[in-house]
């Protein structure tokens, strides 16, 4: 029976350098997603105002999607032979953006703040997609799908913010 | 609170030129899909002949798939900051192919006509896929999946048309 | 086995004149419904503003209902021995109303425009119901149910448009 | 955007007089249904005797059906431009029948009392059906279906009350 | 407690003459439906030929529909105070049409034979619908819906029988 | 391609004599089951009395089971190369028992009459099981399962008929 | 066999005085709940304004919850040996609050009025919870859960009413 | 790695004395529940008489509930560090009540006997609830819910036993 | 109506001697199954060790299967005219095997003990199967299916116990 | 704990000789089933012609059934203490029939070829059924059910091949 | 319409002091739960070793439960008029325990570490339960249920850690 | 009607050379997948040892996934105009790897052997992905998704094999 530890193994056909590159990129995405789903839940609880119920309910399926994205990214790290870090400490160690600024606040204020969070996360996702082109098509494909879903939710957010100049 | 109109915004990390290119490509696909699902329903209602029931029922799930593809494409346009056009007038304004030619007709005649519709739609989809390679991977990935599904249905159609060389 | 074409047959107990009358009426309803579900989807994609999500989601089940109504009406035409026309060309050939006027616009503008579309479709449905009284009770019953559902959705639309006289 | 109140609007193709007539008729049906589903629940809780469980369980789906009928009738009033009244005060203001007479009692006594409630409600429904023939076929069709369901439940009730003359 | 037999009671608001008329009409429909669902199952088991599977599977949901129609008609008889007769003997006592003529036979032969059965049943249904106009709208509405469903299935049957005039 | 008719073929490994024997036995079972499910529905509609609802509802799942048994038996006949006869005429041609005797009647009377029907059907099933021991184990196994289910339902029927000798 | 009436019996281990106290408290809760679910449905039908659909749909699951609470409270009364009163007359006999004041009105007006109804019902529920501490822990636990659910819905209502002091 | 056996551990914040007290109480409840669900199944199989089917079917969901209660109680014992005893021998070792007295018997006799079983079990449950007040609120809450469910089923049982003194 | 007690009746076509034999055999199987599902639950609660969760969860569906087998066997006894005994006392009266010996114990110890229980139950089932060959094929078929399921679970148990001789 | 390997153990009450016989028979059935479900999928992909869709879809549920049969047979081998061989090599080692002969071909050609495959598999199954009569009734019962299902599918296949002698 | 901000309102019948106390307690529980579900997912991704799959899958439903507990606690804070803090920053501001210590590690090491996390969370929950006794029974009841669920999961964890002293 | 055979047709916009290249690549993948799902089932049946149940159950969903991958690949071949070969003979004709080596064996031995199978299949999949970049993006996208899923399952397998270096 196998006696050596297998944690450094990676998929056959993928070089050690590529695997290390991908793992590093994905750990950043994992941090961003874990921070994001906590933030979205926080908004879910603190949003108020005349159109409360629609926005309150619109956020929950997005929380689920972001959590599934975090899960997929973390399990991809493990599949590549890495050790995904998912604790609070992992997030705070490298986070270079500020904690979400609002507490209890009205719908349009929260939506505008979420819009800014998504600008940051999506820009980083697109940079990661480019960086993965040569390293690993499987991981790139995973991020392409997740990015498309994030962008669609951002459309929902932005659609609320439009007020025509009539 | 935000006071300016947001309808020209696009995902962070995507240039204005790329966004405009993608929107133009997708509006053509939307027209093609809206025309196609109306046509498929039309066949669903007008096909007759000895193998009626199988073909009648085979078309309905494809109608649903094409409608979902139209929805995904139109929502992608909105996500990119564009305004998708989905009315009858939008289709007729740029349509450069003829209205579906058959009314009540036998199964093999309708299947041969559908086969020709799919030849046109798929060729245009593949050209769009190529054009999107540099503009937006998220949109390209969306069209790749839809094209594969259209091609599979075309196989179903063609499989009925084969008659051994006896 | 049977060698003659059966496409002109109708249900036993229904005269040829009545069948022809009903088919003509239903083809108009089919055109109206096909135009309407495309229009509703178009609004679904283009509506924006502070109460976006509720209205965006309210439209989708109505799209499904109108598509089911179109399907029922078209299959009734076929049942009566007619050939339902469901292509874009069929709609434009006899359409005597303008293409839906709005693109990307705020919620109340779209709702007011939908309200006008429903005024037209429902008035035509009620005229058709009356015309069918003597021709075919089965078809009349079909339209009665569809009209009731359209009117209920119009109530949803109108309820949004009320603003108290302050 | 629209500034006038829309609450007096009605479906296109329906006269103001007919709408007023239908609303008045439906408000009476709403009162009867709201009274009836409370009464049925009351019986559900107070019936006892050797065949308790079958009758206890038979009532619950009928409660649901009557509540759905009340909902459909009230929403039809709103669709016609009226304001349905659904509070306790609305019922007592015009009720011309006595409160349900029994408390805890045996199965056959409750069933006989329910039978009398249904005699009253059904007779009023049938009168309403006739009165709606010229005013609004959509509403009439709604009541026809509800009346058929009430009559079927009354058959269930009456079937228990038969005891052969041995 | 109630001591008299209740089996002759009818819905309040319906005359004894009308109830008797409706019951008589419905007993004929019950016989027709019971004969029909047995016949359809018989065909389900005996049909053979190159397009076997589609036709074999198309029949089963229609069997279920016809059985549900028989159930609804019979329970309506009981609701009106009558005693529905559902045995083999009830069918044979008044049946004025011949037993289904085919055993194991090819698809087009069975479909042509079913087409003739439906001609008879639908013509009788339409006559019953007319006769019920003045007697009982609830029962008429029941038959209208069932007739529409039967006519739709007949379209399915007839669609298989068309063969182009080549 | 195959040109000869295949309707006389049977499963490989089963002799022509055994197949003929089994088909004959199963046609008798099919007649009994078709008669029985019509009878059970007839009782479902005509039973009355203080414990109506429990018995009325107890019969419907048994109707479904008997119909499934008829279907399985008929499809087994076809599998063995025979042509199952499922029409009213097939039943009356060989039926050696009387039509079900009761119309509208009280629960215990109907249950006692059903009990007698089951005595007949089960005794014939058990005789058929014995006769199939040497002819075809597959068919025998089918009947064993159906017989066990019929006997269980008969226990339900009989359990209602017990009245302690106090 | 048991010959005496059992309606005054209560759970073993619960004194007659405690049972009487609990029944009295619960009858008041039943009246409040029955009044409340009628009122909520009334609002469901009469609310209008720009955020109609979200509030219209938010109320229906709360109606279901309140009806389930009424059912649980009434069945607890019966379990304790009492006779729950659920008719319109039962409500009006002891009701010390006014009928719901609004008819067709805008969203914020209805929400503010509902908020006041909940203030009353919740205050009474909390008083009942205290009173039940010594009498019956099972009933107290039932009310604790129901009170928590009512308070959560009131948060939904109140969240809509906040408008920042800008 | 942990090398010592952990079976004596308990939740943090709960004293060893309290844990021991709770475990002892729960083992008695487990014995009572295991005995009760066997008894209820026994009645399910042995009850006969005119209202057989309703009572036969009423018992099965209660069997499931009691089995779930037994499971919850036993797993709570394990959670507290104890070893739940669930065999036949565990029941007989401490059982101080007689085996259920009836075999095949009529409905009212079985219901009266079940009523007595529930009197015993519920009284013991209420005593246990009191004893747990100071020891462990989590366990007490578990028993409160189970006791309420048992009392509700006893109401079902008792409701059948009432026969008015008319 | 029927006045004699029916509890000694049996299926038509089965002799009194055979029925008595089968009932006696099945009562033993019922005792074994009731003992077994209590034992399996006991293990479910008391098993510990490194592979806890898999074994803990593997047992629950088997508990359900054994309970369903007990139910089927007991209802077969009733169907044959017997009175199944399902109480604790019924088990202990004839049980000739010891109570399950283990309390809290490690996975392999419990699995080895379960393996021995299954050896006993399966051997007795196979003896019963043989004894039923001539008495009642329906009952034999029931036991054959149950025995196969028990044997499959025993394979699951045994598969855990293998440790290769390396 | 147990240290010896258990792989040679068998169900109690089954002799070593019988177990060995059954295992050998089942390994042959496993090979036949694994070959058959691969073949059926192969046909599913390669069939073409005018009635393509019905036959294409008819095959998939049969693939599932054959795979479930393979699973049941293999797990029965393990239950009896044997080691089922399920690899490609296991099939080819003893296979005495030719690989399926057709590639892309028309419907009737594939159906005729499948018919021949089923003749072989069913004949072998029936021989196995006979051989198991004395060795193990549990295994025999398993094969009887699988054989009946295979024969029913063969009826579907053959029904397509019939062409009347015109 | 209401113009003042409502965020400081609380349920009627609850004092401002009690509300403030409860909110403070719940914010601590929210922090603990948010930290815990991140930690559990981290373990889900990093656990390895021979019993990997069981433990990997056992954690996911617990993650869902803890997330639902966090949601319930946060929504209770909002219901009481407070503003729940759910971001990473909220956790780190008051957290007085260390980040989870392990990365990729074997099953027993992770389980032992989780066991210690649960010891801390449960002890704090029990202290909160006591502190809520006088402040708010609704909130206390919420925590009682959550604590019981946490303790049950800890039993699962501990059960894996036992290794007999052989 | 079309008379020529269509089997050499391919999607519009794809060259004949590219189609031929893709078909060849996919036939190799089909062989690998068909071999793999047979092998995985073989392991499912033959794995034994202390952690049997978790691994036994972990394999079945992977079997389903691999079978779905085979189906998708084969149908893609047909869509491209090729004829997929799925028989045992197709696998053995080109297979250049040995049959799976183990029979009944312990969990870690089987997992290590599966790990080696996955190394081979994944390396070939990655080579195929590269080769498809220029030939057909639709097919490449299909393989990218399948490869990701295979790699994730391999992580599950490898996670079991780790044993810390203590």
From TrEMBL, chains A, B, C, D, E, F, G, H, I, J, K, L:
- Assigned keywords, A-Z: DNA-binding
What are the protein's GO molecular function terms? DNA binding; ferric iron binding; oxidoreductase activity, acting on metal ions
Q: Which SUPFAM superfamilies match?
A: Ferritin-like (SSF47240)
Family per similarity comment = Belongs to the Dps family.
Q: Which Pfam families match?
A: Ferritin (PF00210)
Alphabetized InterPro entries for the sequence:
DPS_DNA-bd, DPS_DNA-bd_CS, Ferritin-like, Ferritin-like_SF, Ferritin_DPS_dom
Which domain of life, per UniProt? Answer: Bacteria
Q: Which residues constitute the signal peptide according to the record?
A: none
The Ferritin/DPS domain covers: 23-163
Descriptive protein name: Starvation-inducible DNA-binding protein
């Amino acid at each position: 029976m196998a006696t050596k530890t297998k944690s450094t193994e990676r998929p056959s056909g993928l070089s050690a350098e590529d695997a290390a590159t991908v793992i590093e990129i994905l750990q950043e995405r994992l941090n961003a997603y874990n921070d994001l789903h906590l933030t979205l839940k926080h908004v879910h609880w603190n949003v108020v105002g005349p159109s409360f119920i629609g926005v309150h309910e619109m956020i929950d399926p997005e929380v689920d999607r972001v959590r599934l994205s975090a899960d997929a990214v973390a399990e991809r790290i493990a599949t590549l032979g890495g050790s995904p870090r998912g604790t609070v400490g992992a997030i705070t160690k490298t986070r270079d953006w500020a904690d979400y600024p609002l507490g209890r606040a009205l719908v349009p204020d929260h939506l505008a703040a979420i819009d800014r969070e998504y600008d940051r996360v999506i820009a980083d996702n697109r940079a990661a997609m480019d960086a993965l082109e040569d390293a690993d098509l499987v991981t790139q494909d995973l991020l392409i799908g997740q990015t498309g879903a994030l962008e669609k939710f951002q459309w929902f957010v932005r659609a609320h913010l439009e007020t025509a100049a009539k």
